[in-house]
Design a protein that fits this description.
Length: about 120
Amino acid sequence: MHSHAKFSLWSLWFLPLLFLVPSPTTVQPPQDITQVKSVTGCLQKGEEPGGFFIVENGRMWELVDRIKAAHVGKTVRVTGHYLLRPEAEEAKFAEFEKREAQGLPYADFQVLSLKVIRNSCK
């Protein structure tokens, strides 16, 4: 068998495995989505009106509620829980979230409180 033929056969075996690897999209929420957690990072302005997000540990969190534009560019800790929006509502924001996440996994986060940790993101 020629080396090219061997490569082609190997490629055919490997190709189906690519479909088993999940693409970076949404973060899988825990079983109890109301579980309160904290997320810390640099507060950034999102693309959609009134949108804000934080990137922490390789994940982008789209923040919902209790966010003020005055805190953009500051390191903040938000406390809250995962937010699962209805599919139709989520579709309205999906393109913005994908661009903001820049290939990172992302999820919506319902903010219950916000604390400024540092007045800058450095």
